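User:
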Amino acid sequence: MAPRASGSAGHRAFRRSPPWGVLGIVFVAMALKADALLASPGLLLEIAVPLLLLYAINLLLSTLMARA
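Assistant: Predicted structure:
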C-alpha cells in the first residue's frame, strides 16, 4: 500500500472543515444532560472547569509550539 501524499483531497477537506461537528456533539451532550444540570447546577462547574483547563492548556501549547 502506497502512502498518501500530504496534499491529497482527504487532507485538504479535513483542513477546511469547520468545527461545527464538534460543537454539535457538545450541544447534544449538554441537551441530554439538561435535566441533571437543572437539578444540580454545581454539576455544570464540575464539567466546565476541566474542559476550560483542557482548552487553556491546548491554546498555550499550540501557541508555544507555533512560536518555536
